[in-house]
Amino acid sequence: MANYYGTTVSEGGKLKKNCEEEVNKIIAKYEFGDEGELTVGIQNGELHVWEVDSCYAYNIDDEDRDEEVFDQFLEKISPFLVEPLIVSEVGSEKCCYVQAFAYIARPNKEVVSVSIWDAINRVLKIK
Fold it and tell me: Strand runs (DSSP E) across the chain, as ranges?
């Protein structure tokens, strides 16, 4: 079986003033990426997610990394957002099985995810 290679980048994610320390405490509770190489950090008052890795998160208290909890991480940081944070990933297995999806974290704690296939089906009204 081929290996999946994903690339992740975020957009938006402006934080409320004076909350960077609290958000950094939340970030410190997680390990990010399939291989632990996804970068999550604050730059110029915005939360950024980027790297050549998948947008996965694991709670560092879960020693076995049994459960992927990226959406849980986004729910925890969403109250600190002034604007939505959009985290997109595109990847493939040897240029086959191309996938694209995005997580959207809104300031009201709502987190949704959508794949390219979800978007196509909505546009084409296919169920």
Answer: 4-12, 30-32, 39-43, 46-51, 57-59, 85-93, 96-105, 111-115
